[in-house]
């Protein structure tokens, strides 16, 4: 029987989660679900619907939902999953440093047989499968499924059409055109890019610069250890220098190093900045909350590869007491109805019916995603290769933003944990 777990209310769903676990002695099962999606966001709304449907179809099951934060899961998952407090199914970040690490530590259930039996592998494009499958060393792209994604994501440029028109800046198609537009804004006394150096956006921008110079083979070498990575090569060294140059040119606000992602997003929504470079996870919120100006998006100019992948995925902890129920719940979130709900709420679904997407803006989002998948344009995220690399890159990009270290010093700080991890896994 599952021990008592504290249940949190399902926000914005009017679905009260019970506080009693499966240990009541009545033989009932409990399914405990953890995720960190905004309950008002597209994915959160779709998963709330899935939880409600699961309750209806499993009246004898006590469903307990706990909302976590991304940072909370990032820092505590290895400890929690190795305890009696592990949930039955949870959303978790993909990549070597997160899902790969937990798989290598034996904390996650091998879902390969279930994926094949339920046909989930047929719903996911090969490039999306990479981040769901790991080898014995915990490196993605392996032969065993430890995660199942049901949405996708990518990083792009959101721009304020009104400010672009006011300053006569055109939508760029090359990096040179982009920087020329940024120069136009700075000469007019406008800081062009909203930035958050105290969370993920700083390292995402750095990786855009890397991918501007990189080929797919380099991405595989860096992310999957298929070849040696030169930290003084044009991809990383050039990106670090470009990042420092953009800071010195005033493209990013001087206080960016201390800003969180939420403050970055709200500042852009308030019309204070022409540009914000971030992921599709903002798309639905911008659609619903931006009322005072027209806006649009474009992929980072000049890049064939972009930060992005299948979204964070469902994993089933090894210590789950209800693995069968966990897999049934995952299946529900992969169903066409829930997939269509994800797409119609402004998120990127992996198996929706394109004809079922009714909002024109959301159709554009889905179309861009399909184009990226078709050209193998999703290149993952820079912190994935190494456990703890998120914090390394967070601190490193902050030093570039506040000019406390040179690009060469930043790369030195980045190189050591990468090479240490490579040695640790026998690479």
Automatic annotation (TrEMBL):
PROSITE patterns: PROKAR_LIPOPROTEIN. Residues 1-19 form the signal peptide. The keyword Ribosomal protein does not apply. It comes from the Bacteria. Keywords: Signal. InterPro entries: Bact_solute-bd_prot1, SBP. PANTHER family: ARABINOSE-BINDING PROTEIN-RELATED (PTHR43649). This is Raffinose/stachyose/melibiose transport system substrate-binding protein. It comes from Thermomonospora umbrina.
